[in-house]
Amino acid sequence: ATLEAFIKMSGSASKLYKHPFTVCVEGNIGSGKTTFLSHFKKFDNVTVLEEPVELWRDVSGTNLLELMYSDPSRYAFLFQSYVQLTMLQLHTCKTPSPYKIMERSVYSAMCFVENLKRRNVLRDAEVTILEDWYNWCLKNANIETNLIVYLRTTPEIVYDRMKQRGRKEENAVSLEYLKQIHQIHDDWLYHQTLKPVPAPIIIINGDRELHEMVEEFDKCKNEIFSKVI
Ligand code: DGT
To answer: What is the strand order of the sheet 201-205 is part of?
Structure first.
């Protein structure tokens, strides 16, 4: 699989936008990011970039997502390093449309790193390397973001959704883990005490049934498309 396979080009590619209006959709595992993104696929002026999970599942035949969950102390660094690269590729790719909507970002990848650091899963040197790369990217890469949509959820609810979805790698994911990831997202985007927020935020209640979220998405749609670029 190549990254291009994940870049759903909408419209003609005769013109590419180097700086499209960029929206990153954030939230816990199972918060409805994919559903949110799929809602925007029907608009011609939007390029929707889903998270490259399929790439993480097949790195030269190796399922890094699975290894990260089954043996985190051995593989978390390798996994995070690849997540960071694939996210940067999404941030920096030019789009055929003036709006780009991305699932997650290089910013939220660092929420997972923060958790691995707090749980002492990563070694100090591994954390330093990931943070140094991240800080270098903040200064030097074109990862400018115009809007963040935060699908705020309750850990118990996303735990049930995750179980129902039954992604095999996530068998080992506990409610405790989802609470940790929720807390870090909330400290970052809701309480805004963790680290700087890179763009204005829209917070959506992601606890509603996924099919009921359409209403919430429409509110967001108006807010996104009212931005003149
Ligand atoms: P959705 O549509 O809101 O249900 O989103 P998901 O659950 O399909 O997507 P996401 O990004 O929350 O997670 C996909 C899987 O990849 C999940 O098992 C968590 C994992 N994951 C994503 N990004 C990272 C990361 O930076 N580090 C670690 N350790 N895991 C990550």
So the answer is: 7-8, 46-49, 99-103, 21-27, 147-152, 201-205
Active-site residue flag, 103? yes
pLDDT of 1 reads 46
Average pLDDT for runs of 10 along the chain of length 229: 53 73 96 90 88 88 95 97 94 89 95 97 97 95 93 97 92 96 97 91 89 79 72
Best mutation site among 28, 29, 48, 177 for ligand 1 pocket (most ligand atoms within 8 Å of CB): 29
Which residue ranges form the domains of the chain, and what is each CATH number? 29-225 (3.40.50.300)
Quote the ligand 1 centre to 130 CA distance (angstroms): 18
List the helix and strand counts (H, then E) for the chain: 9, 6
Q: What is the pLDDT of residue 10?
A: 39
Indicate which residue's Cα is closest to atom 19 of ligand 1: 29
